[in-house]
Amino acid sequence: MEIVFLGFILVLSVFLGFELISKVPATLHTPLMSGANAISGITLAGAFASAGAGSGELATILGTAAVTLATINVVGGYLVTDRMLAMFKSKSRPAGAAAAPEVKDR
Fold it and tell me: What's the number of domains the chain is made of?
């Protein structure tokens, strides 16, 4: 019966996550990504604790895999966030270029 309960929680969380993310406006995706990176950092701390607990060989292997995957998630999240923020930066002008062409009155 426990597997049915856990499966129900998984399906409900996938559905809820999809519904929530699909309703987020485009202007809030960058802050949302930053929050997700913070949560992934907490996951990474838990994975370190699991990998170094010394509870057994299987726990160490799974903890190491969790550290690897959480690290990939955090680094990838920050790279995506940096790229998204770069889209909002203004293009820099080359040195010596005029700010705007002057318009002369006739």
Answer: 1
